[in-house]
Design brief:
single chain, 330 residues, alpha/beta, Rossmann fold, N-(1-d-carboxylethyl)-l-norvaline Dehydrogenase, domain 2, 2 domains, 8 strands, 11% strand, globular, binds nicotinamide-adenine-dinucleotide
Length: 330
C-alpha cells in the first residue's frame, strides 16, 4: 500500500497526458507541470478519452477519480509526492536540466521515472543530485489502456526504488517488465524500429503503400503477436516438432537478403511527402481524436476478449479485477 498517492507529471504531452489519466483514474491525486499554453486543453481531451475507455476494461469499479491540478512550476508540482513521472521531449540535456530542478525540491524517497523511449537510465543519472531515485519507466501509447511498462534500473538506482515502482504499476493494472540490462531503446522499441525501417524501404522501393503495409500487419501476424508474442507463436508454427524444428526450417532464411534492417532509407522530402500523402489517403477521413477513439474501442474489445480466455493481457486484467474487488470490500 502506498500512503501518499500523489504524483507529479512533468511534461503533459501525448505520453505525460496518458500517464496523468492512468494515475487519476486509479485514485491518485495528479499535479501537472508543462510550460506549453496548450497543454491543459490537450490533457483534458486525453482525460476525456480515458474516462470513456479505461472503466470498460473491467467489471470491478475503479477507485474514485482524483483531481488534477495544473502547476506553475516544477517546484510546486513535485513537493510532497511519492512518484514523479518525467515525459519531456527526448533530448538528454533537457531531461538533465529538468532532473536538477525536480531533485532540488522533491522527496528523496519518491520514484523518479522517465518515459524515455531511447536513453539508458545511467545516461539520465549523469550529474544528478540523487541518481539513486532515477529509473526508466517506459510506457506505450495510450498509457491509460496499454499495460506494458519497461522498467530499467541504472547503475545507481536502488532496488527499493525498483521494487516500489513495480508494486505501484501493478496496483494500477499495469505490467512492469524489468529489463535485465540497459540498452538503447530498451526491448520493445527496438522491434518497432526494425519493423518501421522495413516499412519505409518497402514504400521507397514501390513494393507497398502505407495501407497495404498496415493490412499485412492487422489481418495477420499483428493479431497473433497481440496474444502470444513472437516466440510462442513460432513454437506453435513449428508444429509438434516444436521450436528446434521451426529454427531448422526457417533459420537459414536469416542469411538470405530478405531484410534491409541495418540500412535506413534516406528520408528525403520526396519520400516523406509520399508517405504523408499515402497516409492522408488511407486515414485522412478521420480526425486524430476520432482515430484515438476507434483505437481505444478496438483495444478494449481485444483485451476483453483475452480476458474471457484468461490469457496474456486478459489474464492481467483478471488479476487486477480481483485486486480491485478485494480492496473495495476490505
Ligand atoms: N509518443 C510516443 O509514442 C512515446 C511512447 C513512449 C515514450 N515516449 C517518450 O515520452 C517522452 C515525451 O514524448 P511525447 O511523445 O509525450 O512528446 P510531446 O511533444 O507530446 O510532449 C512533451 C511535452 O513536454 C513539454 N515540455 C517541454 N519542456 C518542458 C520542461 N522543461 N518541463 C516540463 N515540460 C516540458 C512540452 O510542452 C510538451 O507538452 C519522450 O521521452 C518520448 O521518448 C513517447
Amino acid at each position: 500500500m502506498v500512503e501518499n498517492k500523489t504524483v507529479a507529471i512533468i511534461g503533459g504531452g501525448v505520453i505525460g497526458g496518458g500517464w496523468a489519466a492512468r494515475f487519476a483514474l486509479n485514485g491518485w491525486k495528479v499535479k501537472v507541470y508543462d510550460p506549453s499554453a496548450d497543454s491543459r486543453r490537450t490533457l483534458t481531451a486525453t482525460l476525456e478519452n480515458a474516462r470513456r475507455s479505461l472503466p470498460r476494461l473491467t467489471d470491478a469499479s475503479l477507485p474514485a477519480e482524483q483531481a488534477m491540478a495544473f502547476c506553475d512550476s516544477i517546484e510546486q508540482a513535485v513537493v510532497d509526492v511519492s512518484w514523479i513521472q518525467e515525459s519531456v521531449p527526448e533530448r538528454l540535456e533537457v531531461k538533465h536540466s529538468v532532473y536538477r530542478e525536480i531533485q532540488a525540491h522533491a522527496p528523496k524517497d519518491a520514484v523518479l521515472g522517465s518515459s524515455t523511449s531511447g536513453f539508458k537510465p545511467t545516461e539520465l543519472q549523469q550529474g544528478a543530485i540523487s541518481p539513486e531515485q532515477i529509473l526508466v519507466t517506459h510506457p506505450f501509447n495510450p498509457v491509460y489502456l496499454l499495460p506494458l511498462v519497461e522498467v530499467v534500473a541504472g547503475q545507481e538506482t536502488t532496488s527499493i526504488i525498483v521494487d516500489r515502482a513495480c508494486h505501484i504499476l501493478s496496483e494500477m493494472g499495469m505490467k512492469p517488465l524489468k529489463v535485465r540490462k540497459e540498452i538503447d531503446a530498451h526491448i520493445a522499441d527496438r522491434f518497432l524500429e526494425a519493423v518501421w525501417r522495413e516499412g519505409l524501404w518497402m514504400i521507397k522501393d514501390g513494393i507497398a503503400t502505407t495501407e497495404e503495409i498496415d493490412d499485412a500487419i492487422r489481418y495477420g501476424f499483428g493479431l497473433r503477436w497481440g496474444q502470444m508474442g513472437l516466440f510462442e507463436t513460432y513454437r506453435v508454427a513449428g508444429g509438434e516438432a516444436g521450436m528446434a524444428h521451426f529454427i531448422a526450417q526457417f533459420g537459414p532464411c536469416l542469411q538470405w537478403p530478405w531484410t534491409k534492417l541495418m540500412d535506413v532509407p534516406e528520408l528525403t522530402d520526396d519520400l516523406v511527402r509520399q508517405i504523408a500523402d499515402q497516409s492522408d489517403e488511407q486515414s485522412g477521413k478521420h480526425s486524430i481524436r476520432e482515430l484515438e477513439r476507434i483505437r481505444d474501442d478496438n483495444l478494449v474489445a481485444m483485451m476483453r476478449g483475452l480476458k474471457e480466455n484468461n490469457w496474456g493481457a486478459g489474464e492481467l486484467l483478471n488479476l487486477h479485477e480481483a485486486q480491485l474487488k478485494k480492496s473495495s470490500t476490505s
